[in-house]
Amino acid sequence: MSASTPSTSPAQPPSVPLDAEPFPATGKKTDRSNGIEETPTQFVGNGEAHTQRSPLFSSPRHKKSGSLGVNGTSKEQKPPKLIVQDFPDRSGQRLTSLLFDDKPRPQRTQTELVSGRRAGASWDRSHIHFAPFSVPLKRRLQTLMVLSHTLSIALFLTAFFLLCAIPLFWPLLLPYTIYVLLSAAPHSGTLSHRSPFLRSLPIWSLFASYFPARLHRSSRLEPTRKYIFGYHPHGIISHGAFATFATEACGFSTLFPGITNTLLTLDSNFRVPFYRDYALAMGLASVSRESCENILTKGGANGEGMGRAITIVVGGARESLDAQPHSHLRLVLKRRKGFVKLAIRTGADLVPVLAFGENELYEQVTSDSHPFVHRFQLMVKKCMGFTVPLFHARGVFNYDVGLMPYRKPLNVVVGRPVKVVQVRKGEKVDESYVEELHAAYVTELARIWEEWKDVFGVDKGVELKIVE
Asked: How far is CA 210 from CA 205, 293, 341, 404, 454, in A?
């Protein structure tokens, strides 16, 4: 221990390093001049950068590391801490001492403590990401509308069977059920159940803005003609077709004034109680041949279908099995020529429609990874006329699992019409003319794809393929 000479000046605060830390005293010191015991004030630190360095710190830098050495100890071997002790007495004199705290300290080892699993760690690694509670009300309402539409058939069936469980409603439900089974409204072509008010409700704007969906026009359509819109691709549930052609959420009547469009669906959907009334009010009709011909030859401005149009999802259920996100757009169209013959018989122009993003709304089991499932789906399609893709997307309160579609943009582009010359009633349709119109239709469809695929964010390398 090295000591300094006592000072005769008035008591001053102890000079301590800037990075010093108070250190508890390890014992008491005695001032022998007056016999009074004083507790020293201690500080721990490595010295001030701007003060003159003690001779104890004047050792040269370490040869290998170049770091400042302390008593032959390099920076890699931590030097002992410096303790500054200050001893005041009654007269105001102070005695300052320096010493090193070089007591050995225990080293931590890997075997000292064994910890269990951290609670909640599995939730951090979970593949399911839940939606936060602070979601805006508008987005909640959008989700509610899409959920209601997706489960509409199930909801109407549930309501019907609940009413059937109440005997009080039997006198009403029995004649209603007979009417549903025998009604010709879905294919009569009169569109008498169509409700422009229901189609224009603001709630459908919530439905369309969920994705969001937008309708685009390549050219004007004359209201003095009639048209067959061919919608591609089918996707899983054809949400884009419903948003743009079954409602006014995307402004169909504004883009195509004077044209009354009818979205067609399976005839079996009009045998579901309560749901058939909802579908008819939305302007839907059966996709049967009788229904198509009645719509395009009855009613309209001249009573012969002028200004009317129908929308057919040409690929059908078969195309829904090829609805894979981030993959080639496979359209089942090569052998689908019935809609072309229908156009020739009714004199309706063909209008190709391509929906960018329809296949991105869901993920489903691929035929390559599950060939037996794919064969079963094709067998169901052949026997029953429809099939059920094994799909999933997001949920109501999470982003990874459920039957709700993903929030992907839907851009529905209506192409230029292909002019069709109507044949006289009773005449046979020329097959060469059918092939000519079919080729022109596919060409216009390919033009839409090539012109707008980069604008609407199609993945690089994805191509349009016409199959079957």
From this structure: 9, 34, 37, 11, 22
